[in-house]
Write a structure and sequence with these properties.
Elements (H helix, E strand, L loop, with lengths): L3 H9 L4 E6 L7 E4 L11 E4 L1 H9 L3 H13 L4 E15 L2 E13 L2 H8 L13 E4 L1 H9 L5 H10 L20
Parallel strand pairs: 1-5
Antiparallel strand pairs: 1-3, 2-6, 4-5
Helix pairs in contact: 2-3
Length: 180
């Protein structure tokens, strides 16, 4: 289920949209997965094609894309409760590097969902999402530093904790400035 203002965020950021999710288990560890979009492990994420979202938005079912993805790949679905932030990123979309809108949501993990989060996945997920493991916040910091977990995931985790200081995300800028 998606809260109304979150639907608005989804509809505003439709073009080349990757939705990332913060999912915690009962121990407070974060779900980290492999994915087809980034070279590193990350929070679970899903690319939503523009036409797919437009069709669902017309029938007021934007949440069905996300719910279906979470049920298929992770065997649960929850309530998207908090929109954290949107960023621009470059991701591998169908074999091509594309500039994308990356937005992140927290998923509420109440007692009904915690059981599903803690159990082993008894089915065969698709190849891009086969690696799934819960990591503590400290482990994620270490793995991000060692370039095993992408920086966008670490950034969103810091944002979800309402940390006042967020570590810098490595960005390379090529600026050719001339003074007249």
């Amino acid at each position: 289920m998606i809260i109304g203002n979150i639907k608005d965020v989804l509809l505003r950021n439709r073009e080349n949209l990757i939705v990332m999710f913060i999912i915690k288990n009962s121990e407070g560890k974060y779900l980290i997965t492999s994915n087809p979009y980034f070279n590193y492990y990350s929070l679970p994420c899903k690319y939503i094609q523009l036409t797919e979202l437009e069709d669902n938005a017309k029938s007021n079912e934007a949440e069905s894309i996300i719910t279906t993805f979470l049920k298929k790949e992770f065997d649960f679905s929850g309530l998207l409760t908090k929109y954290l932030e949107g960023l621009k990123c470059v991701a591998n979309i169908n074999g091509e590097l594309k500039r994308c809108n990356l937005i992140c949501f927290e998923i509420k993990t109440d007692n009904d969902i915690k059981e599903a989060l803690n159990k082993k996945v008894p089915f065969s997920p698709t190849e891009p999402y086969k690696f799934k493991q819960f990591y503590s916040f400290d482990d994620i910091n270490t793995y991000s530093w060692n370039r095993l977990i992408d920086n966008n995931s670490l950034y969103f985790i810091y944002r979800s904790l309402d940390e006042t200081e967020v570590p810098e995300v490595n960005v390379e800028l090529n600026l050719n400035l001339t003074l007249d």
